[in-house]
Specification:
The complex is a heterotrimer of chains A (about 325), B (about 270) and C (about 240). Chain B is mainly alpha-helical. Chain B has helices spanning about 1-25, 55-90, 95-110, 110-125, 125-155, 155-165, 170-205, 215-225, 235-260. In chain C, the strands form two sheets. In chain C, strands 6-7-8-3-9-10 form a six-stranded mixed beta sheet, with helices on both faces. In chain C, strands 2-1-4-5 form a four-stranded antiparallel beta sheet, covered by helices on one side. In chain C, helix 4 packs across helix 5, helix 4 packs parallel to helix 6 (about 135-150) and helix 6 packs parallel to helix 7. The chains are: A mainly alpha (about 325), B mainly alpha (about 270), C alpha/beta (about 240).
């Protein structure tokens, strides 16, 4: 088991390394000169050269890469070519907003999917079960930003229960923070909840047909008890895999939802940076997002072996 | 069976609208007409007009073209690159297969949206960068499904017989593996198509997809935002169109899966 | 009478099946696959697949089971009424340690039994902390047997408990069933293997296409079969060559 986890750690570190090189090269081969972009078309050659030296982009690519990644490991993402501010602190700040959003979205998805998926599986022969399945099918087809637009229209514009956007930090006013988080989390979570419902349903359905569940009932457990005590852990193995993929989807989906709700998260920071061609910032944010996805995959892999004893090896 | 029919009808509707738009649309989809701004449902313009007086139905029909175009190219890229990679990973020695799958996992860490935004930042965003980005991001799905299918086929008796008979790897891959995993690939294509439609819509919504004036469902949604409070219709029309296309391709994928691979029936 | 089944019918798959088993009696139910043996067993347990309904009467120690509520049935299952299934590889929960699974019938019915003791009794000392995938098929079937016998049921149903096992392991499991079943417990042993019936059961029921076509003492049925189908079964079995 330890060997397996160590192997996963090695794969994770290698993947992060490769991904960081890809991100770096991608931005480095870019046509155009960041110094030129920063100074405008009328800059003198001397000033351009000076700015290039200041940005460090006159050095060999390998040096630039190690300089960059070395800084990132210490939380230093460099200085923006456009605003000349350090990128790290702002990035960390924005990441916090995105993580709140993703966490809340995931919570919404789970709260919907586990009961709905289990219900749809247990009642799969009944109209009610088929109805839940059908609803989830439609939910999957609605993009998160459309869900957001609809929710804003109903709860912010018509009913005026909740704000249509904006962000209040939780330590400033928790009530406002919560109210502001509800609609973004719902638009992100409803759709993922629908996706997840289908996986929970199939996992539970699969489990319901297993012999060991019948064994459990032959011991005197009632159907519900047998499912909870013997089924859920087994059903959770495939669901956890999907959950990992979903977290990655949520992380990226947050980019869009942040735009709908004007939230100061990583996504809106990324879009702003792209708009102002602030490439070092783009590079930093992309790295954080990609490493986030890899990290989630890594955790899922480890969790997998914890949940399923058969994968541990003897 | 029910999934297949409903999915087929919904997808057929989108394809039909797209094809029809080549020869006929009720109005010119990009013609600005200040006199007929923001007309509601049911008039001469069936779905009404937008803030520039452009006919929504006509935009929707031409937008279907964009949607299908992006989907076909993106899924095409993914299938053409991902399938051989997956078959290779499934047929080659264990270490090489593992290596291909690890590379696959790294690609998987660059979701379509992120990749498209990166491409947009470097090359300038348009339909092409969106398609290519979605395509690249979809490669891992194809590689994965092709590999697991290949592993199954490789352990069957007829492949063992063919190998014992001294057939080359390439022959086995083309004659035995590919036909036997084609069902899996078709299902994957349908499901990936649905994801591509969603991604294109999201990208156009963010301004990283199709550029104006070419109509696109995602951009119609984006343009609807400022007038949302007074004209929810502007968001509803493209929103429903997106949902229909995605639902259609998902159901089609489910239906095909039930049809082509009974073992997987009743699963997701 | 421990078990009396009267006119048991499950759609058209089991038709008008009647038999009785007294306390301490070991009865075999033979027939080819698809003849309705397993459905008969599941009807008694009340574990038929959702889409099937049983009619007729099944009485255990005088109590009607077919009309009993799920709650009442679950009180009997694992206590008065226990079952060993055919497929040991899938009958155990892969994610739960063997010890916990073996003591579960006791916990459910309010008895505390040390896992080691139950496992020792079936010849599996020191396996309580193992997961099912770490055991062989024969060992898993021992675990299933230990669970079934944990509360000394008055009726044990074994549904082809040795079919999925190697021949040498089969013999061990059979002798374990014979030796560890309490003397006053009734046994319904389902199999398609006449040799197994001959070694375990005193009485035998022959089932064909959902009906019992012949019943009698094992010796009678195996030496002087009345029904043509029984004769065919005998001809096809290796008992024939031994005779």
């Amino acid at each position: 088991m330890t060997a397996k986890v160590l192997r996963r750690v090695a794969i994770f570190v290698a993947s992060v390394l490769v991904a960081s090189i890809v991100v770096f090269l991608f931005m480095a081969v870019l046509p155009g000169d960041p110094a030129q972009v920063a100074l405008g078309v009328n800059a003198t050659p001397e000033l351009l050269a000076k700015t290039r030296a200041e940005f460090g982009i006159d050095r060999p690519l390998v040096t630039q890469y190690f300089d960059w990644i070395g800084g990132v490991l210490h939380g230093d993402f460099g200085r923006s070519y456009v605003t000349r501010d350090t990128i790290g602190p702002q990035l960390l700040d924005r990441l916090g907003v995105t993580l709140w959003l993703v966490g809340a979205g995931m919570l919404v998805a789970l709260v919907i999917a586990i009961p709905a998926g289990t219900f749809a599986a247990v009642k799969h022969r009944k109209a009610s079960g088929a109805g839940v399945s059908g609803l989830s099918q439609i939910g999957v087809a609605i993009p998160a930003f459309l869900a957001g637009i609809i929710l804003v229209q109903i709860f912010a514009v018509q009913l005026r229960w909740l704000p249509s956007g904006g962000w209040t930090p939780p330590d400033q006013d928790f009530g406002e923070f919560f109210r502001g988080l509800v609609l973004p989390a719902l638009s992100l979570g409803l759709v993922q909840g629908a996706v997840l419902t289908r996986y929970v349903r199939s996992a539970v359905l699969d489990t319901l047909g297993q012999d060991y569940l019948r064994t459990a009932r032959s011991k005197g457990l009632r159907p519900g008890q047998a499912l909870v005590r013997h089924g859920l852990r087994n059903a959770s193995v495939p669901v956890v895999t999907v959950l990992g993929l979903q977290l990655a989807t949520l992380l990226i989906g947050a980019v869009v939802v942040e735009r709908v709700f004007v939230l100061p998260g990583l996504g809106s920071m990324l879009l702003d940076a792209v708009a102002s061609r602030d490439l070092l910032t783009v590079q930093g944010i992309v790295l954080v997002l990609v490493v986030g996805v890899l990290l989630v995959n890594f955790v899922v892999d480890v969790l997998y072996t914890v949940l399923d004893p058969r994968l541990r090896g003897s | 069976m029910r999934n297949l029919v409903i999915g087929g009808v919904l997808v057929g509707l989108v394809v039909l609208a797209a094809l029809l738009s080549f020869v006929w649309t009720p109005f010119d989809p990009v013609k600005v007409d200040a006199a007929h701004r923001l007309l509601g449902f049911g008039g001469e313009n069936l779905f009404g007009t937008d803030k520039f007086g452009r006919d929504l139905l006509s935009q929707l029909m031409v937008g279907a073209r964009t949607t299908l175009y992006v989907g076909v190219v993106a899924v095409g890229i993914a299938a053409v690159i991902g399938t051989p990679l997956g078959i290779l990973a499934g047929m080659s020695p264990r270490w090489l297969g593992e290596f291909v799958m690890r590379v696959n996992d790294v690609v998987l860490a660059f979701p379509a949206l992120l990749l498209a935004i990166m491409f947009g930042a470097v090359f300038g965003a348009d339909t092409l960068t969106a398609m290519v980005a979605i395509g690249i991001a979809t490669i891992p799905s194809f590689a994965r499904i092709a590999r697991s299918g290949t592993l199954q086929v490789m352990s069957t008796e007829f492949v063992l017989a063919a190998r014992a008979g001294g057939r080359s790897r390439l022959t086995i891959a083309v004659r035995h593996v590919l036909p036997n995993i084609s069902g899996l690939l078709i299902v994957q294509a349908s499901v990936s198509f649905a994801i591509a439609v969603l991604a294109e819509a999201a990208l156009s919504f963010l301004g990283f997809g199709t550029r104006p004036p070419t109509p696109s469902w995602g951009r119609m949604l984006q343009e609807s935002q400022e007038l949302l409070t007074v004209q929810p219709r502007l968001a509803l029309v493209p929103g429903v169109a997106i949902a229909i296309a995605v639902l259609g391709f998902n159901l089609l994928g489910d239906g095909l899966r039930d049809r082509l691979d009974p073992r997987l029936a009743a699963k997701v | 009478m421990t078990l009396s089944v009267t006119g048991l019918t499950v759609s058209s798959l089991v038709r008008d099946v009647s038999f009785e088993i007294a306390a301490g009696e070991r009865v075999g139910l033979i027939g080819e696959s698809g003849s309705g043996k397993s459905l008969t067993a599941l009807s008694i347990m009340g574990l038929l697949p959702e889409e099937l309904r049983a009619s007729g009467s099944v009485r255990l120690n005088g109590r009607e089971l077919l009309e009993a509520s799920e709650k009442d049935l679950s009180r009997l299952r694992g206590d008065e009424l226990a079952m060993v299934f055919q497929e040991p590889m899938t009958a155990l929960n892969p994610a739960m340690r063997v010890g916990r699974q073996v003591t579960e019938p006791g916990r459910i019915h309010g008895r505390r039994q040390p896992a080691e003791e139950l496992l020792d009794a079936v010849g599996l000392p020191g396996t309580a902390r193992a997961y099912p995938h770490q055991l062989s098929g024969g060992q898993r079937q021992r675990v299933v047997l230990a669970m079934a016998l944990a509360n000394e049921p008055s009726l044990l149903i074994c549904d082809e408990p040795t079919t999925a096992l190697d021949v040498t392991v089969q013999a061990q499991i059979l002798s374990l069933i014979k030796t560890s079943l309490p003397a006053e417990s009734a046994l319904l042993f389902i199999t398609h293997d006449l040799a197994v019936v001959a070694s375990v059961c005193e009485r035998v029921l022959v089932m064909l296409a959902g009906e019992i076509v012949e019943a009698g003492s094992t010796r009678e049925v195996l030496t002087q079969p009345k029904h043509e189908y029984t004769r065919k079964l005998l001809d096809a079995s290796d008992l024939e060559t031994r005779r």
